[in-house]
TrEMBL record:
Regions that span the bilayer: 12-31
Protein name: SUN domain-containing protein 3
Record bears the keyword Transmembrane helix: yes
Ranges where the SUN domain occurs: 116-287
Record keywords: Membrane, Transmembrane, Transmembrane helix
Pfam families xrefs: Sad1_UNC
Compartment(s) where it occurs, according to its Swiss-Prot or TrEMBL record: Membrane
Length: 288
C-alpha cells in the first residue's frame, strides 16, 4: 500500500504544480494584455488631443501628419485600420480652415419653425465615438422588454445599442431603437465646447426597408449641461422633417461651454411600435 500512496502523492503534487503554472500563465497574459490596452488608450487619447486642439489653418500640415504617423506606427498591428481613421479626422480638421469645397447643403427647421437651406463646412463632430464621446444615460423602453438581470448587465438595448447614434455607419438597422416614441438620451461630448449646431439623421426612403421611414423621430427638445452643474439649459424645441434630406442641421446659441447634450424625443412620424435614432452629431468650438 505504501508505494501506491507514494504514487498518489506524487501525482497530486504534479497536478497541483501544473494547475498553478497554468493559472500563472493566464494571470501573466491578462496583465500583459491590460498593459497593452492601457498604452493603446493613452495613444488614442494623444491622437484625439491633436485633432481637438489643433485649430484649423494653424501649424504645419506635414509636421502634424508626421506626428500622427509616428503614433500610428506604435499601434498593435490588428487595429491599424481603426486608428487610421483618426488620422483622416485630423486631415478634415486641417482642410476645414483652408477650403469650403467639402461643404454640404442641408435643410433644417429651427426654433421658429421655418426651413432653412444652408452650407455647412467640414467640422469636428464632438459627439463622435472615435473622439471619446459616449452615451452617458438613456431613459427609454427597450424593444425586447427589460428585466432586472438584463438591466444590471447593461444588455437591455443589446439589439440596437444607444452607442450606434455616435457612429458614422448608416446601414438599415444600425441605429438606437426603442419602443413607441418617447426617450431621453444624454450624451457626453468629447470635450466641453460652445455648441453652435447639432445634426440629427435618419435613413432616406430609398434605403429604408419597404421605403418606410415612419420610425424617424419628429418632435424633440435639446438641452445643454455644463461639466460642473446638473442644471439643464434649453436650446429649444425642434422638429425632424421626414420629407427632407436624411441629415438635418439645427443652429443653436450657447453662452457657456457644455460637456453634455440631452435630447428628449417626444414623437415620431407615425410608427406605432418603435422609433429609431440613426445618428447625432454636435458641432462647436472649444474657445469663445
Amino acid at each position: 500500500m505504501e508505494p501506491s500512496r507514494t504514487r498518489v502523492c506524487i501525482c497530486y503534487l504534479i497536478s497541483t504544480f501544473l494547475i498553478g503554472f497554468f493559472i500563472y500563465i493566464l494571470v501573466s497574459s491578462n496583465l500583459e494584455n491590460r498593459r497593452k490596452f492601457g498604452r493603446l488608450r493613452e495613444e488614442v487619447d494623444e491622437i484625439a488631443h491633436v485633432v481637438l486642439h489643433t485649430a484649423p489653418g494653424q501649424g504645419d500640415t506635414k509636421h502634424l501628419n508626421e506626428i500622427v504617423d509616428g503614433i500610428l506606427k506604435k499601434r498593435l498591428a490588428g487595429i491599424w485600420d481603426d486608428l487610421y481613421t483618426m488620422k483622416k479626422q485630423l486631415r478634415l480638421t486641417e482642410c476645414a480652415g483652408r477650403t469650403t469645397t467639402t461643404a454640404n447643403t442641408m435643410t433644417a427647421e429651427g426654433e421658429g419653425g421655418a426651413l432653412m437651406e444652408r452650407t455647412v463646412p467640414a467640422r469636428i463632430n464632438y459627439a463622435a465615438e472615435e473622439l471619446g464621446a459616449k452615451v452617458q444615460d438613456v431613459n427609454a423602453e427597450p424593444l425586447d422588454g427589460g428585466n432586472l438581470v438584463r438591466s444590471v448587465l447593461g444588455l437591455q438595448y443589446s439589439a440596437n445599442p444607444p452607442i450606434n447614434m455616435l457612429r458614422s455607419g448608416m446601414e438599415p438597422g444600425n441605429c438606437f431603437a426603442f419602443k413607441r416614441a418617447k426617450a431621453v438620451v444624454t450624451i457626453k461630448l468629447a470635450q466641453a465646447i460652445f455648441v453652435e449646431s447639432f445634426e440629427l439623421a435618419h435613413l432616406c426612403k430609398d434605403n429604408a426597408p419597404n421605403n418606410d421611414t415612419t420610425s424617424a423621430p419628429k418632435e424633440f427638445e435639446v438641452y445643454g449641461i455644463t461639466a460642473t452643474s446638473s442644471k439643464e439649459a434649453k436650446f429649444g424645441d425642434f422638429t425632424y422633417t421626414n420629407q427632407h434630406p436624411p441629415a438635418q442641421n439645427y443652429e443653436v446659441k450657447s453662452e457657456c461651454k457644455y460637456l453634455y447634450m440631452r435630447f428628449k424625443f417626444k414623437s415620431n412620424h407615425g410608427h406605432p411600435e418603435y422609433t429609431c435614432i440613426y445618428r447625432i452629431a454636435v458641432y462647436g468650438r472649444s474657445q469663445k
